[in-house]
Design brief:
Elements lengths: L8 E5 L7 H12 L5 E3 L15 E3 L19 H6 L8 E6 L13 E6 L10 H4 L3 H22 L4 E4 L2 H11 L4 E2 L22 E4 L8 H11 L3 E4 L5 H7 L4 E4 L4 H10 L3 E3 L7 H8 L4 E4 L4 H4 L6 E4 L4 H9 L8 H8 L4 H15 L1
Helix pairs in contact: 1-13, 6-11, 9-12
């Protein structure tokens, strides 16, 4: 039996300087363990107002110029940043990580659960994308080799590994040689939306994403520009100007929306288009929450979320032609919003908390 009221818990996260799906996981864990401090490499208060609920403890990197905003310049210091923390006074450490936070060192009597967002992407599954420049790849080879060795050692320190999807579970097995269980991350938009109705607009399809290369938003832009179908793209990123330059007049770009505005766009769309391979892909679960189908590439976390023919359907190649063919099939499907919303319940914050509590109880 776990005595939750007396158990001392610490949370660990790679860095606190942005907002996204992982940060929502931390807030869900905060509801389970409201007194748990949050250990991290760097903390940027202005970029992470969501973190004010935590007692945040930073590493020595916090004092290094530019580390708070350009952490990607310091990968070789991340192992030391987390190994230097002490957790001797804690009963349980929970690391939420896609990089180095899993490498914290704990004594045998302290349990460590790693909630793995993905094995370090720039070292493993995304290596060729991050180091596409041959000169950069050659120059960084010794550092990458050293970090890979450390990363494998670090991945064997937690007592238990939890993956966010089947895709991540397979990566953990492939790169780290470890078994893991799956607990899906909680839905982000935890709003009372049942009585809200979408503004009446002309039919449109929707993309909600950061506009960066691996998200493959270019496929949606190219396909719907060719078809002339209305598309609203919500998000920002390094490819924004490039994507706007190639988009047809039928495509509208939006940014800096409130959660309430985003909900309205979800509820008003015909379907969400998801062309990338994602570790999980929380926006697909969000679309399902509002009864909206998803047209997704058949890979990554989409396979955990979308039920073929019932809550959406897949296209099998990451090409414009494959997505065009999928879009042409849209009218032949009939989707029941109630069935779609039922699927979204798998990813509720209540389910997340219940499943995490069960894991902690078993571990102790």
């Amino acid at each position: 039996m776990v005595y939750w009221s007396t158990m001392k818990v610490a949370l660990v996260y790679d860095r606190v300087n942005k907002w996204g799906g992982a940060e929502r996981v931390l807030l869900a864990l905060n509801k389970l363990f409201p007194n748990a401090p949050l250990f991290t490499s760097v903390y940027h208060k202005e970029r992470a107002p969501w973190a004010e609920v935590f007692d945040i403890k930073t590493s020595f990197l916090q004092k290094i110029p530019f580390a708070k905003t350009r952490h990607e310049f310091f990968p070789y210091l991340m192992p030391a940043a987390f190994e230097n923390f002490s957790f001797d006074e804690y009963d349980l450490v929970i690391s939420v990580t896609s990089e180095a936070a899993k490498g914290v060192i704990t004594k045998p009597t302290t349990k460590h659960i790693c909630y793995c967002l993905t094995p370090t992407r720039y070292l493993w599954s995304g290596y060729d994308n991050y180091f596409s420049n041959k000169t950069l790849k050659t120059l960084t080879k010794p550092v990458v080799s050293s970090l890979r060795k450390w990363d494998k050692v670090a991945a064997n320190r937690p007592d238990m590994m939890i993956a966010i999807s089947k895709e991540v579970q397979d990566r953990i097995k492939n790169y780290y040689g470890r078994d893991s269980m799956i607990i899906y991350p909680p839905l982000g938009l935890d709003l009372k939306t049942e009585k809200q109705t979408a503004k009446r607009t002309k039919p449109y399809f929707l993309v909600v994403s950061r506009l960066v290369p691996y998200k493959r938003i270019d496929l949606a832009i190219d396909a719907l520009s060719e078809l002339g179908l209305p598309l609203k793209v919500i998000g920002a990123g390094s490819l924004e100007k490039k994507l706007k330059s190639k988009a047809g007049k039928n495509i509208e770009f939006l940014n800096n929306l409130t959660d309430e505005e985003l909900v309205d766009y979800y509820k008003g769309c015909e379907a969400l288009i998801f062309p990338g391979v994602e570790d999980f892909g929380l926006v697909m679960a969000e679309a399902h929450k509002f009864g909206k189908p998803v047209i997704a590439f058949a890979g990554g976390g989409a396979l955990d979320i979308v039920v073929e023919g019932k809550t959406g359907y897949f296209f099998n190649q990451q090409t414009k032609e494959s997505l065009v063919e999928a879009m042409n099939r849209f009218g032949s499907y009939t989707f029941d919003p109630q069935v779609i919303m039922k699927q979204a319940e798998k990813f509720s914050i209540d389910n997340f908390k219940k499943n995490f509590q069960s894991v902690v109880n078993k571990l102790f």
